[in-house]
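Below is a filled-in request sheet from our internal design queue. Each sheet records the structural input a requester submitted and the sequence that came back. We keep these sheets so that new team members can see what a complete request looks like end to end.

REQUESTER: design group, bay 2
PRIORITY: normal
MODE: inverse folding
CHAIN LENGTH: 183
BACKBONE (tokenized):
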């Protein structure tokens, strides 16, 4: 039996956000074998990495949204994953990003997350979103700031332990330039 999912492809100036694929496994395996994965539950054995990729597809099947695989438009290189997340037991609907080490520091996470957030707000009708960020993950907090998100509170996640909750601007606040939300 083959399941059929309708996962939209989104594009930005430099990126394609597309369905997660088994061909992403090698890059994900290498990422989760390294210390770079420490902020997202790693390092992990490769069997768990494959299961995590399968879980991304399952989230799309259950919720109708999820993480996209992000690739460079020019080269087709897999850069990581960015998307929308709300598994059972999660605090709130989230916008998340995880890039491969070779893709960091180039604005890809911000560019892709802005597009994912627009999809959440404009297509799915979300009125708010958070991002859970490890307190020691300064680059991820910088992405959240560039997106206009603000630190809201600490949260003791049952799996990841203490995390920071960053609140994204609501759709109306984005339209107004975001100034009213944090005045």
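RETURNED SEQUENCE:
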């Amino acid at each position: 039996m083959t399941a059929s999912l309708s996962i939209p492809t989104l594009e930005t100036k430099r990126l394609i956000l597309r369905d997660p694929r088994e061909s992403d496994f090698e890059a994900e395996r290498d990422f989760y074998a390294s210390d770079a994965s420490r902020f997202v539950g790693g390092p992990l054995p490769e069997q768990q990495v494959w299961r995590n990729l399968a879980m991304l597809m399952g989230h799309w099947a259950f919720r109708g949204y999820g993480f996209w695989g992000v690739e460079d438009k020019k080269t087709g290189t897999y850069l990581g994953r960015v998307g929308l997340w709300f598994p059972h037991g999660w605090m709130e609907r989230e916008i998340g990003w995880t890039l491969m080490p070779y893709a960091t520091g180039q604005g890809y996470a911000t560019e892709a997350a802005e597009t994912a957030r627009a999809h959440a707000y404009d297509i799915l009708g979300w009125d708010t979103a958070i991002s859970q960020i490890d307190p020691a993950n300064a680059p991820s907090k910088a992405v959240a700031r560039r997106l206009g998100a603000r630190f809201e509170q600490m949260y003791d996640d049952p799996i990841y332990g203490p995390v920071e909750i960053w609140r994204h601007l609501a759709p109306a606040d984005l339209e107004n330039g975001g100034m009213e939300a944090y005045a």
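SHEET NOTES:
- The mean pLDDT is 94.
- The beta strands are 10-11, 15-18, 67-72, 78-85, 94-99, 130-133, 150-157, 161-167.
FILED BY: M.R.
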